[in-house]
Records
---
Amino acid sequence: MTTSSVRTALVLAGGGSFGAVQVGMLKALSGAGLAADMVVGTSVGAINGAYFAGNPTPDGAAGLEAIWRALRRHDIFPITWWTLLGFARRRNFLVSSEGVRRLAETRLPYRRLEEARLPMHVVATDILSGDCTVLSEGSAADEANDGGRDILVRRLPPSCL
């Protein structure tokens, strides 16, 4: 294997508590001049990764930090008596993915995954089949032709984000 054939992927895991930690990692890596050839993420890692893939620089990491510092739980998980009532009615999710969709729509620096400065690959679980799905092109924040869900959140129940 030659040095020119080696590719580096930035892989960001899911799990809401990892989201802010990933921002610190992105700041450290980009600040040290370390660069990736592509970004792969799932759940919160897909959201952070999608933003960073659009601006994979120290400024991009600082912008992501500003977003995290401004976010509040109710921006993403607006739990109200109505959402609890909906859960009691046996919906397959506790809260809507609308908050995540709105975050992607208003904060991502591009509209389609293939427009990111670095290739972005979203790893998701298809909730109907249980199969792993890798999404590398298509709408990142605009409405997709699949009932109004976005590519970053359409196959993930909001409780996974």
---
Amino acid sequence: MLMKLLLVLCGFPLVLFAIPLRTALTKHKSFLSSLNNNNNNFHQKNNGNNNLDNKLTTITEASFLFTTRGGGFVEDSDDDDDDDDDDDMIASNDSTSLLILNKIRNLVRSLLDIGNKKSPTLTKAFTKLLKKIEKLTGVSLLPPKQEKKKKKKTKKKRSVSSSSSSKITSAKEDDEKYTPTPKKKKQQKTTTATKKHLSSTISSKNSNYRIQRELKDFITSPPPNLSVKVGSNIRIWIVSIVAADDSIYKGEVFKLRIQFPRDYPTVPPSVYFLEPTPQHEHVYTNGDICLSLLGKDWRPTMTAQSIAVSILSILSSAQHKQLPMDNARHAQNKPGQYQKDWVYHDDNC
């Protein structure tokens, strides 16, 4: 199918181009016969003039080449009527040849447009064939190339691409300016004693191994409004509680003393407030805290940090400042005892 299309594309313009060539050859034959008749008459009058014969032969040869390319030939004669007839014939030949050439060029342009859309490979072969025909005949058939318009288009494309790239870079710069920097978790400042406890190597069989691990977790990621300090004994912690801004204890700071017994974590730690103690319905003036997590609800999976967080939530949820009902009786006891047999006031303890 492609070979048939190639033959049609290549053969059809050649057939059209052969028509003006055939008409030019027929006209050339009639013109040559008239020249030969004139030449014979001229030889009868001037038998000895060989130079004129040579001129006439060169004129005939030139006329053949000129007429094959769609042109005409002007004959030098003495009669004005013969000159006028020859001029009219040349003008008519020129006009017809120009019309045919224009038709052929239009046809070639339309074939090239169709070929570029459907089969570019065939159009390339067809253009090569037309270039060879142009070299042989000297007649231009291909449409002129439009280079200036392409250059303008490329310039516009470049300008559009440069403007778009500049927009993208500006947008990226704006994003970089306004991207919020992620907040880093504030690590608690450690004392020399706590650094020693954290850097010391403790075996997993040692009872202090779990306490050291809990201390490391507390310092690396401390809960809000809570901080811890440790002295020479790793089993005694001092936890500072800063009251929340939306609580009735706003601006007040309290301190918890946490001591880990030998049986920890099977037994809960000893926890109580140091003076000054907060005025709360579940906090005694001696520092004890009415909290079931320090007694019957303690589990070995709990930590000292979770106890401190629950005490902070008790203070934050308080509606008014008041002491427990049995504060006068319990205030004389030693704080921080194991709350094994305690009777709690309510379910909030």
---
Amino acid sequence: MPPKIKNQDTKPKNQDTKIKKNDIFLKGKENNINNELNHQSEEVTNFTSTNTNTKTIEQKYQKKTHLEHILLRPDTYIGPIMPDIESMWVYDDDINKIIKKEIEYVPGLYKIFDEILVNARDHSCNDSTCDTIKVNIDKDTNTISVWNNGKGIDIAEHGEHKMYVPEMIFGEFLTSTNYDDEEKRTTGGRNGYGAKLTNAFSSFFS
């Protein structure tokens, strides 16, 4: 039912007087609020100035490692890490169909899962013997595993960087097999972050 709106012609004759009184009252409160805000602003300015002045050069000008920066500013690399509500296509077990509905999810968590899934898919493009990808989500242990068959990753020491290949590609940022821009690619990864981001934001990565 729409809200009832009173006819303006039926307003009491003394309404203008009441408005004037209220106007004076509101102006009085406005002045008090402005004074309080000015006072608080001065306090914040003084605190900021004092706080800045007490910082050492090392505290004021900082340099972060790659990993420190990723953990400090995750939104730059994986997106928001707070829950969000969005309309997405999801699989409904009850009707055995993919439907579109609003769901609550964490974009950052979705991203680090997607990075590993893309890795598995890329492997199927590069290795003709890879024809199976399995995903397991265990709610009891809060773990997600992605498995694919095929030839696997080379277990060998990298001659230049003096570390084994799996350690390098999963533990060192900016490592990739997709830096040759002369090659025609249908794979997803190209910047050397991918699985390393999943590793960085995981409490267990194997």
---
Amino acid sequence: MGRLIWCCLVLSSAVYAQTQAPVLSSVAVPRKSATPLAASPATGGTGIVYTCDPSVQALSATACNILNTTIAGIYKSAFANANASIYIKMGSPGVFGNSGWSFNWFGYTDFQNALTASATSANDALAIADSVPAVNPYPTDTIGIVFALQRALGLSSTPCLPSTACYDGTITMGSSSEYYFRDGVISGDQFDFFTLVEHETDEVLGTPSCGLGCGYSDTLFPPDFFRYHSDGTRSFAPGTNDACSSADSTNACFSLDGVNMLQQYNNISGGGDAGDWVTNCGRPRVQDVAICSGTAGVDISPDAEILVLDIIGYALRTPDDFNQDGHPDVIWEEPVTGWAQAWYLGGPRGASVTGAADLTQANPWNIVGVGDFNRDGAPDVVWQDPVSGAVQVWYLGGSGGVTLTGAANVTAKNPWKVVSVADFNRDGHPDLLWQDTATGFAQIWYLGGAQGTTFLGAADLDQTNPWNIVGTGDFNNDGIPDVLWQDPATGAAQIWYMGGGVAGAQGSQVISAVDLTGPMTAKVVAIADFNMDTHPDVVFQDPATGAATIYFYNGAQGTTPAGTAPLSGENTWHIAGPH
């Protein structure tokens, strides 16, 4: 029997000072082509589908399209099985934002078995072992699971589609607020409409908590199993919002194991939902109790909302996973003929070769990146002509993810080199990072459109640098790709942590930097989270022998060595990605 609950958020007018990175001088934008090749339309699951009430359309003519492209794309890029049908409308003045969603009750054993069967990452395994063990840690045997999460866990197969007037949840936005629709610059009294929608979308997907009561006695929701006091104990009662950085028995913290406190939950009755984070306008999150005014472009984060959704049952999508087994794969390329092959990886640390498949047996161009450009859930590859600099995306799919389904040009001629593929502006579309090999200048090309190859704008990353950009990865888990550089003379590697939310230049500001390695003879050839611990790992390849090794990293800044694993012995081919 289903039950309906409404949850809400509040808005904060708190304004905080932001430290600005130095302004970088402009450089010439690399040329682009206006004549892309025809390509196949995107395919895949329903993902998140928003149906907009006319009241939303009246407020913004573009909001519904952005919801079903950019925002839905963020969830689809993050998860392989986050599917929900959501109706969104405007409410009365004074109602800031709330979501209504239904759930069913399940016994603990059913929940624990389903969660165990759905585990795909190291974080999943840790969370289940320490927080959702075979023996229920709580006296209650009543677990409330929302409809969308039931489907993800395999507890229900009933679809919910707008075509049948079925909705997993309803989001109501307050009509008295000043909203920012990510067009232009946000003002100090505006609230990012799409951040608020993501907040409520997370709740429809299953992030609420019964930590402060939820109207049903002896009921817990899945996130409650990861709700701890910072002294490692667990109980459900209003208390304090004392910091989770020191031992305390009155606060509430998000933790996979009861030892490492990752985020802070609200634990004050009447101060917001129990499933929301304590508001921090200095580092805002989507699920904060209060959404801060004047703050633009905050989306679900890998170390916060995405992590919660992951451990309660949604499967993280591995962006470089060609055979869709949950592990990143690598692409090899033969330097003379251009023969390209995918190596499927797996095993406990993601370093075991489980198979291989050809992409092509001859191509004079070079593979320079991997990303899901048409957002069909399958990685695509980016090729660049070493002579003209022309760039083209190959859309891939089929069994093993190596079947060519279409292609599109990004640019017809360019003297710069594509050095990485990453989503710098967090709009759900991969962007290109270019570097001028002569001057060291680097620049982001923001891409979008139905096939992901429409040029939307560009932003300088830095001025000149004698080092080479060798890839990107979110090393500090703040949701923004960071840039890895390598000194061509010594082989030393350094991470530039990126940020910045200015429209048209998102993710282009250098916030800080830290060394990853000292001098190395091996070259960085790939970056991916091979052991699935949410921290990027780095593949180094010996230029003399071709032998390749994965270096694992973790820690708050993603620079703590965590061991190595051989990927390949001597090999005349070179690894072309992902990076």
